[in-house]
Amino acid sequence: MMRRSLMTVLLAAALGSALSGCFPLIAGGVAGTAMVASDRRTSGAYVDDQSIELKASSQLSNKFPNAHINVNSFNRTALMTGEVASDDERLRAEMVVRALPGVKRVENYTVVADPTTFSQRNNDTWITTKVRSRLVSGKGNYSSQAIKLVTERGVVYMMGLVTREEGDAVAEVASQTAGVQKVVTLFEYLNAIPALPADASSAQ
């Protein structure tokens, strides 16, 4: 019974991470190796990304309590989306993120507008879920686990370490998903698909 409960918790955690676009680093053993390898980031970059997101959320919410700013980090590139009150606030928010330890690059896609409604944010979450589901079930020559998805106001942002062939394929899947207004690709391109370590390959 206890073993079944543990499996249920692990499966729920994995599903939640898949829908958000990133997979958890399970410390130690083959599981940890497989997660990082399929994600294609180093474990150090993964940890830095988590730290960047947490610190950005804390600092931005304190400095700009009336703004709606999301920060998602992949391989130390911080993507900013959401709504701010003015161009000045947009610039100041970007400066906060740029100053965070570990940040190599900032992509600021925030807009000057009223914050989105709860309904709009739910719709964005649903769009992300649909795109993720189509990527997972698709038969294209790409790894869905290598892609991080963020949706804001119907615009899908895609991050990841991919080849150009993979990037084009996943962008096409996203663009053909119902409800998607636009696709923005922020990939870091690889010359070739990296090989998985032997223990990670056997775990998948």
UniProtKB/TrEMBL annotation:
InterPro entries tied to this protein: BON_dom (IPR007055), Lipoprotein_DolP (IPR051686), Transpt-assoc_nodulatn_dom_bac (IPR014004)
Keyword Nucleotide-binding attributed: no
PROSITE patterns assigned to the protein according to its UniProt record, in alphabetical order: BON, PROKAR_LIPOPROTEIN
Keywords on record: Signal
N-terminal signal peptide: 1-20
Positions of the BON domain: 48-114, 123-194
Short name of one Pfam family: BON
Superkingdom of this protein's organism: Bacteria
Protein's recorded name: Osmotically-inducible protein OsmY
Organism: Paludibacterium purpuratum
